[in-house]
Amino acid sequence: MSLRAALLFSTAATFACGANTGGQSAPPKAASGRAPAPTLEVSRQLITPAETTSVSELFERGEARARAGDLLGAAADLDRVYTLDPNGPLAAEALFRAAEAWDLSKDNERALERYEQMARRFPEHALGSQALVRSIRLLCYLERWQRAGELADLFVAREPQPRPFDAIVAHSAKALALVAAGDDAMAMRFIEKGRSIVESGGLDMAGRVPRDLAQLYFALGEVRRVRAERIKFTPLPPNFGQAFEERCQLLLDAQSAYSDTMRAYDSHWTAMAGYRVGELYQSLHADVMRIEPPPAVNSERRRQLFEGAMRLRYAVLLGKAHGMMEHTLSMASRTGERSPWVERAEQAKLSIERAQAEEQKALDRLPYTRTELLAAFDRLAKGQAP
Question: Same domain for 248 and 171?
Answer without folding.
Answer: no
